[in-house]
Amino acid sequence: MAMALDMDGVIVDSNPLHIKAWTLYNRRFGIDAGEALAERMYGRRNDEIVRDFFGPHLSAEEIAAHGAAKEEMYREMLGPRLAETLVPGVREFLQCHAGQPVALATNAEPANVDFILDRGGLRAYFQVVVDGHQVRHPKPHPEIYLRAAGLLSFAPRNCIVFEDSFSGIEAARAAGARIVGVRTTHRELPGANLEIDDFRSPQLEAWLRAQFPEAS
Description:
With 216 residues, the chain is of the alpha/beta class. The protein is built from 10 helices and 6 strands. Strands 3-2-1-4-5-6 form a 6-stranded parallel β-sheet, sandwiched between helices.
């Protein structure tokens, strides 16, 4: 059995800070997405979000610049509170499964991945890291999970994916993986095989063992 974890909403409950950062950044340019902001950013890659907020006319350089500036603001907000923003139980879960084939598979920017893995002391738990710049098609396309499974040398059907977003679940299902939905972003996650509030869920380990009894 191999596992692949999304980052935002699975490892770190970062979406409230992403919302705050996008709100403040967009305000510099007179953009107010209102209550729709959250749904316009959840589960999407930065280039898609920037085009949505600023329009499709931007050059690749302008898109990258907007994304980098916003993410720098987000990391400044996250830094002092990273430990408390980790999804409850995730560190202990990763420690319990240390040495097993585990991948990080996220649409997130590489700078954010490095910040959370290194500042959070989590990098050693992941044999493979795939970020949004390593795939041509972001979630909900299955490419990121197919790539993560391939790098772990596992068939996707033998992988468990942890996701919090609708687009991530769609990507994992399209790849053929089984899915644990983490209810940090949405209270209901259609398509997930198991739903948990966080990694302290008492049914999680029993469910994992039941998926691959030969590995128990």
